[in-house]
Amino acid sequence: MKKVVKKTMLIILLSLGLLITLVFASLLLLSGVFEQQKYLDPWSKEYFSQFDDPRIQLAAHGLLAGNGHNMQPWIIKLDKENPMVFYLYSDSKRMTGEVDPFSRQMMVTQGAFLEYVKIAGDYLGYPAEVELFPQGVFDEMDLIKSMQSTPVAKITLSKTSPLETPLYDYLFMTDTNRSPYKNQQLTMDQVNELEAVNTNTDTVVKIYQDPTNIEKLKTYIMNSVIIEANTDRVMKETEIIFRSNEFKKNQYRYGFSVEGQGTTGLMGHIIQGLVTLFPSMNSGEAATNNFIKSSQISIDNTSAYAMIFTKDNSIISQVESGMLYSNLVLTAHKLGIVMQPMSQPLEEYPEMNIPYTSIHTDYAYNGSSIQMLLRLGLPEKEAPFSMRQDVMEIIE
Ligand SMILES: Cc1cc2nc3c(=O)[nH]c(=O)nc-3n(C[C@H](O)[C@H](O)[C@H](O)COP(=O)(O)O)c2cc1C
């Protein structure tokens, strides 16, 4: 009798083990565990060298820049007559019109790209002269058509000896770290070095780490995160660009993925497998709760914030603030400091009107605009790489 019970128990245990292994293996397969991560290729330091044209080489660096919603809304047109000239256009098909109705973040993103191109140009011996809006700025009444016909920048290269640019190596680090940061203030030297990145009299970088401002900014961010989390059409826009598994990530190579929340490795595959099987885990109420919870953890573990102000909210100022942002984040990396933009209170859709207006009333000076609000600090853990397209996909 005892023997029979023992045998039955063994069979149950073995079946259970087999079932768990099967479920686990299925999740890994659904996640695409054996897929090659082509969407990470552009992060390799050698990636650019497969192209002979220096303009493509520099664009391959530009696309590593931080960019709103990881939409990578850049189009490069190579000048057919002059091999040292190319143009940057914004890709109107990559707008995120719900969260960014006036394409302000999209313009900041153009600037972020341009600064990466400039730094890579110096390093490779192709200094890049950037002329913003060489054919005039966009017609805001017809933004989409304007974006398609009007370049954001003309980039003219020259040939010199390569320069030892101190920020070059940091181009190959991902710009956004959403994990908790150490409970440690920045030193005055670090604050001074970061604020001094700005050399333009029309822009200001300011760092806040006193308890009053930390508390105030925390409240602004959480209130606006809650508004965003409950604004269905904005959340839906984000949900649509979430790539739930390796197949999708290789297919699209832009948008969001589990890496964005710092999840990688086996756990990343398990979550990807689950979200592929049950998409509702990442939509509706679940997405609302996840967004609020993860934001709360981030801001509860933040000891410093930074803001980038521009004298006005013109398209040129927006692009310039993106250039400054890239410089700021790269300098931060040089100092071992990481950042995460917290854009919610700066967003311009109607539901965000109150936080937008009151953060500007509290912090902006003489009609200036806050272009970026960032949390910054010493990381608890490294941020994984985010997806990037192949550079040839942005060359028209
Ligand atoms: C204008 C702008 C606004 C952004 N806003 C946010 C934000 O509100 N929250 C966030 O977590 N990341 C934000 N980001 C970071 C992007 O999501 C990030 O750059 C993109 O996903 C690519 O990831 P990477 O920077 O790690 O390469 C923003 C970036 C830019 C340029």
What is the fold named in CATH at topology level of the largest domain?
NADH Oxidase
The number of helical runs is: 12
- Give the overall shape: globular
CATH superfamily of the largest domain: NADH Oxidase
Q: Helical content, roughly?
A: 40-55%
Total count of domains: 2
CATH domain class of the largest domain: Alpha Beta
Largest sheet: number of strands, sense, barrel closure: 4 strands, antiparallel
Structure description:
The chain is an alpha+beta fold and 396 residues long. The protein has two domains: 44-171 and 389-393, 3-Layer(aba) Sandwich (NADH Oxidase), CATH 3.40.109.10; 174-377, NADH Oxidase, CATH 3.40.109. Helices cover 43% and strands 12% of the residues. The chain is built from twelve helices and eight strands. It has helices at 2-31, 54-62, 104-124, 143-149, 188-195, 211-229, 232-240, 246-252, 265-277, 284-300, 315-334, 353-363, and strands at residues 74-78, 85-90, 128-132, 153-157, 203-208, 304-310, 338-341, 369-377. Strands 1-2-4-3 form a four-stranded antiparallel sheet, sandwiched between helices. Helix 1 crosses helix 9 (265-277). The longest helix is centred in the first third of the chain and has 30 residues, at 2-31. The radius of gyration is 23 Å and the shape is globular. The relative contact order is 0.18. The mean pLDDT is 96.
Topology:
Blueprint: H1 2-31, H2 54-62, E1 74-78, E2 85-90, H3 104-124, E3 128-132, H4 143-149, E4 153-157, H5 188-195, E5 203-208, H6 211-229, H7 232-240, H8 246-252, H9 265-277, H10 284-300, E6 304-310, H11 315-334, E7 338-341, H12 353-363, E8 369-377
Antiparallel strand pairs: 1-2, 2-4, 3-4, 5-6, 6-8, 7-8
Helix pairs in contact: 1-9, 2-3, 3-11, 6-10
Flavin mononucleotide (FMN) binds at residues 66-70, 105, 108-109, 112, 174-176, 178, 340-344, 386.
